[in-house]
Amino acid sequence: MSRPNSSYEPQLVNRAGETLTGDEIETLDFDRAVEELDGLNGSYAVAIQPGQDVRALLPFIDHIARFDIAFPGYRDGRGYSSARILREAGFTGAIRAVGDVLRDQLFYMLRCGFDEFLIKDAAPPEAIRAAAQRYATTYQSAADAAAPVWALRHRIPA
Amino acid sequence: MYQYDAFDHAFVRDRNAEFADQVARRLSGEITEDQFKPLRLMNGLYLQLHAYMLRIAVPYGVLSSKQVRKLAHIARTYDRDFGHFTTRQNLQFNWIKLADAPKILEELAEVEMHALQTSGNCIRNTTTDQFAGAAKDEHEDPRPWAELIRQWSSNHPEFTFLPRKFKIAITGADRDRAAVRVHDIGLHARPEGFDVYVGGGLGRTPSLGHRIKTGLKGENLLSYLEAALRVYNRYGRRDNIYKARIKILVAALGPDEYARQVEAEWATLDKSRIDAPVVEIDRIRSFFPAPAWKTGFDAAAFERAKTADPGFARWLRNNTLAHRQDNHLSVTVSLKPVGAPPGDASSAQMDLLADVADAYAYGELRVSHEQNIILPHVAKDDLYALYSRLDAAGLGTANGGKITDMIACPGLDYCSLANARSIPLAQDISRRFEDAQLTDKIGDLSIKISGCINACGHHHVGHIGILGVDKQGVEFYQILLGGRADENAALGVITGKGLSAEAVPDAIERVVQLYLNLRKDESERFIDALERLGREAFAEALHEPA
Amino acid sequence: MKLLTANRLSDGLTIWYTPSGWVEDAAHAARLDDAAAEALQKTWAARETEVVGAYLIPLKDDGAPVQREHVREFVRANGPTIGATADALARRFQRADIFKD
Q1: Scanning A15, B214, B220, B362, which has its CA 20 to 30 A from the CA of B483?
Q2: Gyration radius from chain C CA atoms
Q3: Which run of H or E residues covers position A94?
Q4: Residues of chain B with pLDDT > 70: what percent?
Q5: Would you call B32 an interface residue with chain C, using a CB distance cutoff of 8 Å?
Q6: B268 pLDDT above the threshold of 70
Q7: Mean predicted lDDT score pLDDT of chain B
Q8: Of A60, A61, A67, nearest to A28 (Cα)?
Q9: How close is the nearest chain C Cα to the Cα of B281, in Å?
Q10: Which residues in B lie closer than 8 A to residue A111 (C-beta atoms)?
């Protein structure tokens, strides 16, 4: 019998499956970011809870190096929309998934524009690689480079 | 019908590999039941009262004879020799082993089928008119659009963990046989584009969809849906499972405000990346050509058969629909023989359906949301031979649209959510009205039975709706009157106190007798008389023995 | 008194706890005193690779389940009632004594 994956300490990995070490960047909560970012210099991380509108932060995006998007329970899918909205708005910094992050969500997160994962798993690098290679066919455009299947069928450049 | 290309095959293969891995991890203990549950549900695997139930997607209700033979094989090999066709145009197997599920999915993939997104809080199987491509009143074939939506919604990365399940229905005919106003999103294709309805649904808070857009061009359908789903994903309630459907969000915001937010979201999207180009829509359309119609019609022989066999004449009257080809009809094969569970078919019956579809119906079948099988195109010259073979196999019941053509969910006999049994009640009612002459005299009348408030039996839109409730461990049934699911959709209203199972057939008999006494003439249907006379008179008859 | 029931992980079938292991026939379910039942339920709730959703059915002194549970537990114990009333089914399975009224 295997050990449940949720019993592992969360590990931070990037989309290449490389382990990242902790960083010193200051993290603001959403309310503080909305109120204060305009007057701050430098680069911050902002923690986003489900239900908080990332569009409110778009005016200050130059001050934001990273969004930490929370998944308090893994059935709460609001974080996927938050990440896509940020990528559609042109945000090129890091988007990190934190909270209840398990290997079965990684495929969706990769497609929605997440590139860092604080994940609970026996083998996080292997989980990321497996998720990235899981599907040869993607039916829709999203935030990643994968072409929708209609573009491949008709050789339409992305 | 649509045929997979290498991309579609690869997708299903990859999906099945992922699920096989998830099953293996569950069996080994690497993931808990709590974690596994949403994963298995996304593949249509439920744990019910007695065993696992596997719900197989029948995309927009369309099946080939080859697929039906595969379903028969699965019923024989992995289940107890039968399957159950559902009100969502899908098929359920009730006695599946967890360890067999990956193997079953492999078998399904061989015939271009899967169980993906038949449960879970994701975009479910798009449903449509069971007479698509055949009906005389159709101006746009909904099947290519339903296939386009199927592909777009498959494994959608943003919409796999929605607040709640999401159901889309689409019709392209004047008469709405797809009940688009009781779906999360309903699409009605018109010459100038799609009418979009949102926020309809049954369940705990039944409501009719609001039209939020007209004239939506097909080329922009996917990006508009993407915007509509994103607003729902972000703002739909997640604190209370009973208030999580989009109808609650639309009611809270108001349809106009919801529509405004969708337009605003739509304006931000890069439509050229999301919308499939016309060349792809045309490619999908090319899979739905009209068959090479058989020609000719021997009217004299047809009339002779009708005269010689009154059973055939009656079946023609009740179970066929006008076809766009004058020498063809669409046929409803009733899965409601007297006293049998509505929607069940044995493996032998499935094999026979596949055989007659090949012999007489261009190899094509449909599942209707009334839980019957449709043969959409049958040449009139073949009808008697078809009827004879169906009848010999117990599939010739001539009750299409009649009082015994009931919808019933699986109820407490199988379902772990149910409060009361549905199927035994349907059986009792159908025995009460088994007399063919009486059935025909009563005419069109729909009874819809749900074993709980989740309304899988669509009780709100039955002319007579029946809702099972639990009172301290005893089953009771509330009766609704006046619902309808057609283009004049209306929600039935609960009448009086709940009745015991034994009392229901008597109550319905009293209501039907009252209708027969009060109707203007035979052309006034039950629902018309009810609307003319008001519910009160009928409600009284329900609850007070005459 | 209580019965302990669950579904088997591998095939999902309804099973019943007896001192010599889990069985499919509800007629052999052990009538457990409350303390023992609670302890066993806790133990089996954690053994998720064997059974799913282990729970207790409370019984009245006469051996019937408390009323709130009656229909569901009867169907669960006896299988689908399709084509037969509950009474006919109980007679067929000779199980009227498991959950008597």
Answers
A1: B214
A2: 13
A3: strand A94-99
A4: 100
A5: yes
A6: yes
A7: 95
A8: A67
A9: 42
A10: 157
Task: Work out whether strand C51-58 and strand C2-8 pair parallel, antiparallel, or are unpaired.
Answer: antiparallel
Residues B49, C69: C-beta atoms closer than 8 Å: no
Distance CA A150, CA B277 (A): 8
Instruction: Give me the residue from B10, B32, B157 closest to A80, CB to CB.
Output: B157
- Check whether C98 has a pLDDT greater than 80: no
- Which residues fall within 8 angstroms of residue B1, CB to CB, at 6 or more apart? B62, B64, B143, B287, B288, B364
**B389 CB-contact burial (10 Å; exposed 0-12 / middle 13-18 / buried 19+):** middle
Tokens read off for B135: 């009906």
Q: How far is CA B317 from CA B250, B284, B323, in A?
A: 42, 35, 14
- For B269, name the nearest residue in chain A, comparing CA atoms only: A88
B129 vs B39: CA distance, rounded Å: 30
At C96 the pLDDT is 46
Cβ atoms of A112 and A88 closer than 8 Å: no
Distance CA B131, CA B473 (A): 42
User: Helix A78-88 crosses helix B221-235 at what angle (to 10 degrees)?
Assistant: 120
Which of A14-23, B155-164, B377-386 has the least mean pLDDT? Answer: A14-23
Residue B437: pLDDT band (50, 70, 90) is very high
Provide the shortest C-alpha distance from residue B515 to chain C (in Å). 29
Average pLDDT over residues C58-64: 80
Q: Among C10, C14, C69, whose Cβ lies nearest the Cβ of B473?
A: C69
Query: Do residues B138 and B131 make contact, with C-beta atoms less than 8 angstroms apart?
Result: yes
Report which DSSP code applies to B381.
G
Query: Are B173 and B324 spatial neighbours (Cβ–Cβ below 8 Å)?
Result: no
